[in-house]
Design goal:
A hairpin with a 2-residue loop joins strand 8 and strand 9. It contains 17 helices and 25 strands. With 583 residues, it is of the alpha+beta class.
């Protein structure tokens, strides 16, 4: 007698069920996806006791002919593919013919279905054993009822959570479907009470509005970007809103709701430097790419996909989101940047063609342009740059420094305050990122090289960041031990204290282990920018304020510093007038 035997199909179904059906929400997911595959326009979902007692999904889809129903309940019975080659680019949610038999093997299951012109059929299945089909009268469509899930698998039953928690999972599954299928009418109820009624709509934004309220949806930013064959679309949270409400994350790939940690990280990377550390953005995104670039058959519950070229997909998503954030910017609300540039300060003057104002200290080099790569800072170079900087045709309003910390100006819509440190930090950050990426640093040779003695931790931080620091313009000789000789430094502004900046930078990089070049660039640029930026409390000359203003205006995200805080505060005339009781 052989010791190997083939398992009866009922046992095989139960084993398959272990993978496909984990909890009530997985049943909901499989059933509603079948409904969509059947061309339904209306889906009604009713749960009792979080789905533990029963789950019923009804649709107005194609229905099934009597002869097909037993096949639908058989393992590998599917109408969606015929051969392995059909798997590539499969457009339906289902393709394996596993869901119905798996669910039916671990529950008290009933399916009622009818096609347009055929009669109706009902089949009941109890723990995988089917009763004979019955003829019934019903409208076109299908109703599946799954009662007593896992009644015959006590081990599984034990793992079900509270009704509340299972219900929440089911709501998530329905929400995911609602977002991929905005044109579907969906009704969801729990213990006889309506929980969600979603009318058909034409956009994801409207759908989000119907689920979480118009205000929530309005505050999201559109993403729509094509990078080669990859199209990223959807909505993401404004940086200023991140962390202020429940985090919601939704991703679909070619219309299929999936989880993907890599894409999640790519979205977060797009926010880097615009939100404070530790908070994560909400997003609702669909990534569409050619079907042979993605394998959908890699996860038992079809909750994940595999990309042929993951890196390119992640970069495309990151770029798409970053672009979307770049176009918005709270600064745009008062016409700072963007397509509808309407910068028209109330009290403005055209920048004179040449102007050199002298600050209190050393030669008043412009704050935000820098000398040519590696060159000594010569007066003529500085002169040329100031000239170039002030020749820009953009109108710069009259600027005032307040408390040696803020730059104030009047705008047609109100009063605007810029925090000089945060603003300069943003300018330097973007400049440093460009420098790190292009490798063309703008360094100034020091007349007297600096000598720095470091502790072991700082020396270690220096060694692991040396290459990047040099790219930034710090030309440093290390003498094996913990002594550094610094020959050149970047030149962010005339009062720049290179020694202090370098020390503080090394100090905050101590013990820092960042993986990946882009992340290192961002980390270092943000750290050096923070340490090198002009501080609050420093007096700025007119030309310094003007060049800071112009440089900030030219950044991609002027309204946020590198920690995600605001660089700009806007007080509208409306608000001012209300305060004075004029309105
Ligand atoms: N709501 C429905 N309306 C019409 N036909 C349905 C419905 N649900 C299932 N079917 C039919 O039953 C078949 C089996 O469904 P099942 O979910 O088991 O497999 P599948 O959807 O083909 O693949 P997968 O296991 O990947 O979901 C389907 O291929 C489809 O023809
Ligand atoms: Mg299916």
């Amino acid at each position: 007698m052989p010791i190997i035997s083939i398992l009866p199909s009922s046992v095989a179904d139960q084993i398959a069920a272990g993978e496909v059906v984990e909890r009530p929400s997985s049943v909901v997911k499989e059933l509603v996806e079948n409904s969509v595959d059947a061309g339904a326009t209306i889906i009604d979902i009713a749960l009792e006791d979080g789905g533990r007692k029963s789950i019923r999904v009804s649709d107005d889809g194609s229905g099934m002919a009597a002869e097909d129903v037993p096949l639908a309940l058989a393992r590998h019975g599917t109408s969606k593919i015929r051969s392995a080659s059909d798997l590539v680019g499969v457009a339906t949610f289902g393709f394996r013919g596993e869901a119905l038999p798996a669910i039916a093997s671990v529950s008290q299951f009933e399916i009622e279905t009818a096609t347009e012109d055929g009669g109706g059929t009902r089949i009941r299945v109890s723990g995988g054993r089917a009763f004979p089909p019955e003829q019934i009268a019903r409208q076109r469509g299908t109703t599946v009822t799954v009662a007593q899930l896992f009644y015959n698998l006590p081990a599984r039953l034990k793992f079900l959570r509270s009704a509340r928690s299972e219900w929440r999972g089911a709501v998530e599954a329905v929400t995911a479907l609602a977002l991929t299928q905005p044109s579907l009418r969906i009704h969801l109820s729990h213990d006889g009470r309506t929980a969600l009624t979603l009318p058909p709509v034409s956009s994801v934004r409207s759908r989000l509005g119907a689920i979480w309220g118009g205000r929530y949806a309005e505050d999201l930013v559109d993403v729509d970007d094509v990078a080669g064959p990859i199209h990223t679309s959807g909505l993401v949270q404004r940086p200023s809103d991140v962390g202020t409400s429940t985090r919601r994350v939704f991703l679909s790939v070619n219309g299929r709701a999936v989880r993907d940690a890599g894409i999640g990280r790519a979205v977060e990377a797009a926010y880097r430097s615009t939100i404070v550390a530790g908070v994560r953005p909400s997003f609702f995104l669909d990534v569409t790419l050619s079907s042979d670039a993605v394998d959908v058959n890699v996860h038992p519950a079809k909750a994940e996909v595999r990309f042929r070229d993951r890196w390119t997909v992640e970069r495309a998503v990151e770029t798409a989101v970053r672009r979307a954030l770049g176009t918005l910017d709270s600064a745009q609300s008062f016409g700072w940047r963007g397509s509808n540039f309407t910068f028209a300060p109330a009290a403005s003057y055209e920048a004179p063609s040449t102007e050199i104002l002298h600050g209190t200290a050393a030669p008043d080099a412009p704050l935000f342009t820098s000398s040519s790569p590696g060159a000594d800072l010569q007066p003529t170079a500085a002169y040329a740059e100031v000239e170039a900087a002030t020749r820009t045709p953009e109108i710069i309003p009259a600027l005032f420094q307040l408390r040696r910390t803020y730059i104030a100006f009047e705008h047609e819509q109100g009063l605007v305050l810029i925090d000089q440190h945060s603003a300069h930090e943003r300018v330097l950050y973007e400049q440093f990122i460009r420098t790190l990426e292009s490798g063309s640093s703008t360094a100034q040779r020091l007349l007297l090289p600096l000598t720095l003695h470091l502790g072991p931790a700082e020396a270690d931080a220096f060694e692991s960041n040396r290459e990047y620091l040099e790219r930034l313009g710090f030309e440093i000789e290390g003498f094996g031990g913990h002594t550094l000789i610094v020959n050149t430094v970047p030149m962010p502004h005339p009062r720049f204290d290179a020694e202090r900046c370098l020390r503080e930078t090394l100090d905050s990089l101590t013990g820092d282990r960042v993986a990946g070049t882009a992340a290192r660039h961002e980390r270092l640029a943000a750290t050096v920018a923070c340490k090198a930026a002009i501080k609050g409390g420093e007096e700025l000359s007119q030309s310094e304020m003007r060049s800071l203003f112009a440089a900030l205006r030219d950044t991609t995200l002027p309204a946020h510093d590198v920690h995600g805080r605001s660089t700009i505060v806007h007080l509208t005339w409306d608000e001012v007038e209300r305060r004075f009781g004029r309105r």
